[in-house]
Specification:
This protein is an alpha+beta fold. The chain contains nine helices and eleven strands. It has one domain: B-lactam Antibiotic, Isopenicillin N Synthase, Chain (Jelly Rolls, Sandwich). The protein is 36% helix and 16% strand. A hairpin with a 5-residue loop joins strand 7 and strand 8. The longest helix has 28 residues. It binds 2-oxoglutaric acid and fe (ii) ion.
């Protein structure tokens, strides 16, 4: 995907919600998810402040990979209240958003509902000023989630790669949320809607703050189930047969055949990429996964 776009489209949530303007706005959304993988979502009605979805702690009678979810660790109760208001508001926008995405792809509105997970995650990110051209976040696609919903302040620095290899600035638009396709949605659509590479260039004179919210994928989603529904979904998306053919055999990085389900694949990733935390809290799994990584 990612054609040689030169600007990032703006999608107005209130126009999607209004039957009079919905079909025009669905066309804007369709272009964004098919051809770009990035968009600004405006008129969301969400106040902008800081912080993850409420989840209970793991118990022994649940599968081991369920341990990847749990209660958030709040420094104090007033932050907890703020975080909970933010995450429940953003979860609701996310639920509405995936329904409009389904409709813009000519699919039944509830197509993606069953892929949504319980615990979406958010981060509070601070980018202190640095020398010109310094890296804030290196080039990447978002690995977890269906879509990422990002609130950013007015400093700027987020850039999106187009097909011609140019970095396009996601210049801050007040009151908007920047939305991008993440690997979960890419997998569900067999790559027909692929994620777009992005990065952050560190600010030079002012600190930048951003709040990415990664919309959760259901933890017990299994590879076979994903493959079956991908085939069914892709068959109905209005793209060329050639694109569909390539999409059918999903080489899913989301769930490798080595793992029981998406939850296990995620927990394994975390344990391997944070070895000290892995060794301390999941010693048995750390040993198992590090042996598998070496095999
Ligand atoms: O801070 C930003 O603008 C983007 C951060 C990001 O891309 C990420 O956390 O995946
Ligand atoms: Fe990202």
């Amino acid at each position: 995907m990612s054609t040689a776009f030169s600007s990032i489209p703006i999608v107005d949530l209130s126009r999607l919600q209004d039957p009079k303007t919905k079909s025009d706005e669905l066309a804007v959304l369709r272009n964004a998810v098919f051809n770009i993988g990035f968009l600004y979502l405006t008129k969301t009605g969400l106040e902008q402040f800081d912080f993850g979805t409420e989840c209970k702690d793991w118990s022994e009678d649940e599968p081991f990979w369920q341990r990847i979810e749990g209660p958030s660790q709040y420094p104090n109760d007033s932050i907890k209240d703020l975080v909970q208001r933010y995450t429940s508001g953003m979860s609701e926008i996310g639920r509405q958003f995936v329904r409009f995405v389904a409709e813009c792809l000519s699919l039944p509105a509830d197509t993606f509902d069953t892929f949504l997970g319980e615990m979406s995650r958010m981060k509070l990110v601070k980018y202190p000023p640095a020398a010109p051209g310094s890296q804030g976040v290196g080039a990447h696609k978002d690995g977890i989630g269906l879509f990422t919903f990002l609130a950013q302040d007015s400093v700027g620095g987020l850039q999106v790669l187009n097909k011609a290899g140019d970095w396009i600035e996601a210049t801050p638009i007040e009151g908007s949320i920047v939305v991008n396709v993440a690997q979960g949605f890419e997998a569900i659509t067999g790559g027909v809607c692929s994620g777009t590479t992005h990065r952050v260039v560190a600010p030079t004179s002012t600190t930048r703050y951003s709040i990415p919210f990664f919309q959760a994928v259901r933890l017990n989603l299994e590879l076979e189930e994903l493959k079956r529904s991908t085939v069914a979904i892709v068959a109905k998306i209005p793209v060329s047969d050639d694109k569909k053919k390539r999409a059918v055999d999903v080489p899913s990085e989301l769930i490798s055949p080595l793992y029981a389900c998406f939850g296990e694949a995620q927990l394994r990733n975390r344990i391997i990429s944070h070895p000290e935390v892995g060794q301390k809290w999941y010693p048995d799994l750390y040993e198992k996964y590090s042996k598998m990584a070496m095999a």
